Amino acid sequence: MGRVSKTPTFRLCKRSQFRKISANVAKFMYNNVTDNISHFQTDIVNFSSSQINPQSENQNTIEINFNEDNLENSVIESVNEFTNLSTDQFASVPYNLEQDLREWGVNNKITRSAFNGLLTILNKQPSLPKLPVDGRTLLATPTTSLVEECGGGQYIHFGYKSIIEQSIKLLRPNPKVIKIQINIDGLPLFKSSSKQFWPILGRVIETKKVFIIGLYFGNEKPSDVDNYLQKFVQETKALIENGVVINNVKYEFKLSSIVCDAPARAFVTGIKGHTGYYGCGKCIVKGKYKENRVVYLKTNSELRTNHSFRANQQPPHHNYRTVIENLPLDLVGDIPYEFMHLVCLGVTKKILKIFVHGKRKSYRLNKKSIDKISLRLEKCRPCVTSDFVRKSRPLSEVDRWKATEFRLFLLYTGPIVLKGIISEEYYRHFLVLSIAVRLLSITNQTEPNLKYAEDLLLYFVEQFKKLYGKENLSYNVHGLIHLTNDVRKHGDLNSFSAFPFENFLGKIKNLIKGSHLPLQQVYRRIIEQQKNEVSMLPHTATKNSVTFSNAKKNNSCAFKKIVFRDSIISNKSPDNIILLKTGEVVEVSHFVKNATDGNVIGRVFTSKNNFFEYPCNSSIVNIFEVDSATSPINTFNISDVQFKCVALKRKNKIIVIPQLHNFNE
Fold it and tell me: Among candidates 435, 429, 411, which has minimal Cα distance to 340?
């Protein structure tokens, strides 16, 4: 008997009898009959009896009578099991078993005992190369952890080097400047304990790849912020001053921004928190105490600058100095107010909680209205695209909503489900926020659009205290008036959002298998991933790249699904509605691959109207009310696709809303 194949095997039909062969063997056989094997790595082939020389039964090689037409229409039957291979002549086909085992172990978070058990079984096979006895040897698990005492806890510094080298490999052409975004936040580990991580995370802006720079572990946040940030600041400052040299090529290094929520921002920069009288990090407004809370009533206070911050021109704003000031960074403009915490978990959550639990009858909804909104949200669930991991939940569970659910409500479902239930005054006020945030979330902004969004947010804040009372004019609501300036400097809201970092925090937490030495556990898993070049988050595909999948039967050029700009578009609801650059809304039928990029085949929605006309016509932000697609089938170039859309049903109409993010954001 020959060697045991652990790759997926395929059935080889010979004289009406099935024989099992591995993918590598099938590829080897195919390579002997044609030079073009690139597509065979993904396409699967069934060799019929007519394609095999019947006299080859006892020969050292198998001869194949290759017929391209028969091969194109053939069918494969996959066999998901280990199988003995009697064709010893193919034992020399190259196969890196160790590398496959490494990737399997890291990607699937296999326990050490399970990994060692598999290695023991494989080592009993004499035809296989000798493998290590312990999985830690195979994965190059570090034997020691570089733990140091820090601020009442423990700290490990990972640094930038390995991730920058990987990023350079991914980027084509190589950039002259490597831009890094930083995130600092706390991460509770266990429900029954106060133990927590405080990671320092980085994000390569060009690849959107998140990585870990440093990790603190303790019972509370670091007691000494300078000790906690010291290594990060030293390394970052050296890279900014000296650049990065990789393969004798020097790259400029730039720290773009530091993304934090309000408590982390106050901790890192040493300023008053969001509950303090001088808590605003963007202007010198002084808060007032209203109904057991500090509120910020003024909207026209003098703005802070990097110079005024470093010069300590408003002493009550500062608690202490930190080493973060040693970085060549605008400590006001380069630490922006960000979308996830300020808008989603801040303002949007506040509005919905006021609707459900508010003290005043003027804005608090009765149970009947709450149930009606919840029913509409439930009906929206099947219409929400696959890019949204979390779908709409009832409004009665708003206290347990996650940030992505508030984003979904603000930008997509909210304007539909609230219409006709809350009063027109409150509905229009909500639309002002929704449209302003949508304008700030679109890439390639123009100054007129930014100015309009800025005016809308200022109007929203001024009306907020009239509709909901001064006591609800919190830090987050006040912060909206500064949001547009951060967009002007750093790009659209998704460019400096905490969503990618929060996703990564979840990945870090999943690396822990028990409460014993969690810091060391994460360190070992991260090093294993770095050494085996396995990323915890996939990097974003290049702009406008297209990947075709799910070919239609009897037509190898027609496909049911594509991945376009990191978003899935298919011929099935809810992922089948797109908006073209021409303004046409199209229902996708299928896709056709050609020599360049490809075409979309579909029907255009002929009837297209505004869904709302306040504060502007909805068509200005590409939101339309349409009927069913009735036009004849037509062909469009994939490069003409501007947005994938969320299509929500309302009565007998469909509300089409452009999608502003993908499943990686």
Answer: 411
Q: Are strands 555-564 and 546-552 parallel, antiparallel or unpaired?
A: antiparallel
pLDDT of 597:
76
DSSP character at residue 39: G
Whether 51 and 166 share a structural domain:
no
Is this structure's pTM higher than 0.70? Answer: yes
Cis peptide before 336 (omega within 30 of 0): no
Question: Considering 271, 305, 332, which residue would you say is the last residue of a domain?
Answer: 332
What Å distances lie between residue 390 and 162, 384, 411, CA to CA?
A: 33, 9, 14
Considering the domain architecture, whether residues 468 and 344 belong to the same structural domain is answered as yes
Question: What angle, rounded to 10 degrees, do the helices at 483-490 and 424-441 form?
Answer: 20
**Residue 168 and residue 129 share a domain:** no
373-to-262, 292, 364, 397, 427 alpha-carbon distances in Å: 31, 31, 13, 12, 13
The number of folded domains in the chain is 5
Residue with tokens 């039964």: 57
Write out pLDDT tens, residues 609-642.
Answer: 999 999 999 999 999 999 877 788 999 999 999 9
| 152 and 281 inside one domain | yes
Cα–Cα dist 331/489, whole Å: 13
Q: How far apart are CA 642 and CA 564, in angstroms?
A: 11
Does residue 175 fall inside a structural domain?
A: yes
Domain that holds residue 124: 98-139
Region 376-405: mean pLDDT is 93
Q: For residue 221, which of 200, 242, 193, 197 has the smallest C-alpha distance?
A: 197
pLDDT at 423: 95
pLDDT in tens, 41-84: 333 344 444 444 444 443 333 334 434 444 333 333 333 333 33
Query: What are the backbone angles phi and psi of residue 564, rounded to the nearest 5°?
Result: -130, 120
Residue 519 within a domain: no
C-alpha–C-alpha distance, residues 462 and 298, integer Å: 9
Tell me: do 275 and 346 sit in the same domain. no
Pair of tokens at residue 231: 């290594």
Residues 208 and 265 in one domain: yes
Across 438-455, average pLDDT: 94
d(CA 2, CA 87): 6
